[in-house]
Specification:
mainly alpha, 75% helix, rod-shaped
Length: 63
Amino acid sequence: MHPTSFLDLHRVRAAELRAEADAYRLAVAAAPPRGLRTRLGWTLVGVGLRLVAAPRTPASVSF
């Protein structure tokens, strides 16, 4: 194979990688921010797990 063939293949692959990176950047920029919503959701999950795992003590009856 001629050395320029390797260079041509490298240029084609580099162009493909740049196109993928651009597409990824556009997709990330278009996604809505979910920071606060995600933190709130995980906080609610944590609270729910604590409620479920809380030991239940029988009500003491005093006469």
